[in-house]
Amino acid sequence: MARPEELEKRLNLLVKFGGLISTETNITRLLEVIAGQVQEILNADRCSVFVLDRQTNELWSKVAQGMQHTEIRVPFGKGIVGNVGSSGQFINITDAYQDARFNRDLDMMTGYRTSSILAVPLKDVAGKIIGVFEAINKRAGVFDSDDEGILQLMGSLAASAIENAQLYESLSKSQLETIYRLAITAEYRDQQDTAIHLRHISEYSSLIAHGLGLPEREIENVRYASPLHDIGKVGIADAILLKPGKLTPEEFEEMKKHTLYGAKILCNAESSLLQIACKVAASHHEKFDGTGYPAKLKGGHIPVYARIVSVADVFDALCMPRVYKPKWDPEKARDYILAESDKAFDPAIVEAFERVYDDILKIYSATDGRTTIIPGITKELHRHNF
Ligand code: C2E
Ligand code: SIN
Ligand code: SIN
Ligand code: FE
Question: CB within 6 Å of ligand 2 — which residues?
Answer without folding.
Answer: 48, 74, 79-81, 102-103, 106, 114, 134
